[in-house]
Q: What sequence folds into this?
């Protein structure tokens, strides 16, 4: 197949390596000139691409059977450009495409907003009414509308990502000695990089359609989770300050039942606290 990975970063790079090794023709895009040389080593073609580059996106659609959208915004003011503008450009280009394509998009479970600790699944109401949250919701709706043109569309709502280079112990050490906002009573929802990459590959191989949560089986409260890491590695416990604005808004427990029911078996259903590089 001809596969384009738009926004080829932490997740996209592993996908590019995987598909290239299987003999597929892989095109990768980035918004960073510094990333181009790195992408040339793991793909057949790499280019600078912005969401507003409709002509380039139209060419990508013409040249590829599969589009994997793993874009990420570096800051809140880049959300619209990175997500919604890209989605709108793809939809506009799709109107002139003569053959339906497959599109896989990595969204965020933050679209669910605050459900006060209740379980949420793919049918739950989207309560994130922030500007960034609404952009993510509009992006999902725009991409799902591609089904009007016969496209196969699969959207993954990702929980907080961890994995090599983002291991849990190193992240814990980064907050050591600081007071964290809130009381630490929000539930945690995380997913390992292997299961994002594995889920995308599974979706492509099995032609999954619709929306799926990608999250692991574990949902301890954040205080409980950080205490577990501290105890495991003989480190000081994190202190909490309810007077500070909470970093992790939107308390909920995210269900991965739909993804499991599709037949996918999570490789990392439980969290690994030790450094993943060890």
A:
């Amino acid at each position: 197949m001809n596969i384009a990975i738009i926004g080829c970063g932490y997740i996209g790079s592993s996908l590019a390596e995987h598909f290239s090794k299987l003999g597929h023709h892989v095109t990768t895009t980035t918004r960073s000139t510094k990333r181009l040389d790195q992408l040339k080593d793991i793909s057949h073609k790499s280019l600078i691409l912005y969401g507003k580059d409709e002509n380039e996106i139209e060419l990508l659609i013409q040249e590829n059977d599969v589009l994997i959208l793993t874009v990420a915004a570096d800051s809140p003011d880049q959300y619209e450009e990175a997500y919604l503008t890209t989605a709108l450009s793809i939809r506009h280009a799709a109107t002139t495409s003569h053959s339906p394509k497959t599109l896989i998009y990595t969204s965020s479970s933050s679209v669910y907003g605050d459900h006060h600790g209740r379980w949420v699944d793919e049918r739950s109401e989207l309560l994130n009414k922030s500007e960034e949250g609404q952009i993510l919701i509009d992006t999902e709706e725009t991409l799902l509308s591609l089904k009007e043109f016969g496209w196969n569309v699969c959207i993954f709502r990702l929980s907080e990502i961890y994995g090599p280079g983002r291991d849990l112990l190193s992240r814990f050490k980064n907050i050591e000695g600081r007071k964290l906002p809130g009381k630490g009573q929000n539930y945690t929802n995380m997913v390992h990089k292997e299961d994002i990459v594995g889920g995308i590959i599974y979706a492509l191989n099995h032609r999954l359609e619709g929306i799926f949560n990608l999250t692991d089986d574990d949902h301890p409260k954040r205080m409980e989770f950080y205490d577990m890491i501290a105890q495991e590695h003989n480190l000081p416990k994190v202190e909490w300050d309810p007077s500070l604005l909470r970093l992790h808004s939107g308390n909920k427990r995210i269900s991965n039942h739909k993804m499991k029911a599709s037949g996918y078996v999570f490789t990392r259903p439980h969290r690994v606290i030790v450094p993943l590089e060890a």
